[in-house]
Amino acid sequence: MSTTAPLILLLDDDPDFLEYNRIILEPQGYRICCAADQQQAWALMQQQVPHLIITDLMMESLDAGFAFARRVRQNDRFRQIPIIVATAVTSQCGFDFRPRSADDLAAMGVDAYFDKPVSPAALLLKVAELMLKDTPTPDRERLE
Amino acid sequence: MNQMHVLVVDDEPGMRHSITRALQNDHLHLPELDYDAHFVMATAASGEEALEMLTTRPPDLVLLDYKMGGMTGLEVLRHLNQKTSDLLIIMITAFATIETAVQATKSGAFDFIAKPFTPDELRDTVRKAAVHLVTQRRARQLAEEKRRVRFEFIRVLGHELKAPLAAIENYLLILRDQTLGQNLAGYEKVIKRCLTRSEGMRKLIIDLLDMTRIESGEKQRAITQFDLVPLARQVMETHQPVAEGRRIGLELQAPATLLMRGDRNELEIVLNNLLSNAIKYNRDSGRVLLGLEVTPDDVQIAVTDSGIGLTPEEAAQLFQDFSRIKNEQTRDISGSGLGLSIVKKIALLYNGTVAVRSVPGSGSTFTVHLRSEKPTAT
User: Fold this and answer.
1) d(Cα B288, Cα B54) in Å, to the nearest integer?
2) Lower CB density within 10 Å: C or N end of chain B?
């Protein structure tokens, strides 16, 4: 696969969810890199800036995915990268994490939110949509 | 040192002062509860004032005059009982009739003390109330803690069951949508992962049932005298195929026979969990040594592996429910996270202990000591 293909970073502590996304996304011409935790994901991002991130929510902590999204948003190099959250956690300790509007998503600092299991068609559609919206900044072009 | 906040409600200033004086230099010492406190006193000259003070600083004990101008003691009592449940009220009454006592108790007073009373009588009554209060609060705390632990357990259990289910559902969607086109080998891999994850769920449920049976105490323990050595051999045999697949050598170091009194099934669970961990967390071509030893009042089961080992921090949390060490090296190892917690619970049934000694990167030894069931070696 060519190195100019868009790169997607997958972050999930469940190896099967990484594998699932790889199976769906690779045939569509995306390049995939996988991380099992935030530290690993962050390290991978330093090597190569991904065009999109798909992350789990509950990893080492309940809202690790949100914490990671915040960290990405606060970083000048990474803030434009679209983020998709996919999780089996829909409510926890009485809190309902599910966003109900675009405003909710913006407040969470993510671009899309899926409950697991994620339908392959829905995921591909959302990835394609976010990729189109994301016109690469000159800065990112240079970094690559 | 704890503080016991006491509110004295009486319309007679002399009464308020004398009670305050009698208690404020006294020290509450309850050796039976391992509880010590000094009194922090506050006073109110009327029922209305008392109710107002409750919202700013809720007391632990209220000494409440029965007969006051304005709101009567009984009215205050009824208000108090509607508002709070975590304080005790002692009525002060001038006429110690059965009738007033009954009425006060009905309205929620813990006790009453009749005027005139001596400082010692007052201290005795307060002390009795304090014992009750402290005991009641501790019971409540314990119940709360149990509820919290149970809630947390169910929360984690829910996640542990939902995660593999989501993985299986994801893979089923790939099959349904034929995402892999004509790639049959790809589908085979997907199906294999589905089976692995559903097997993981099944193991979790079996462990959960084992644990519930042990914890509920409902399971009849079948205590017999039996030989631990053949049981150990039998358990090792069931793990042999998996071990061989990864070229891990299993070795038994034991006397010819080791008779002990206990529940065979419980011992089988212990051996199973320890061996399966020792294999799972081992390196390929590693080894596992199962050592059985007996002393006059102690059976020792030690399982040593040549695996990835544990840091002291990891070892410290190992025997808790759903404790699974998650890192780069363990990500493809499936486990319920209940196995060692079950081993510990069984060991406790034998007044025993479980311990781990580990060197990160080179291996761990899990040692279970079982006592009380009078083992004998031959």
Assistant:
1) 65
2) N
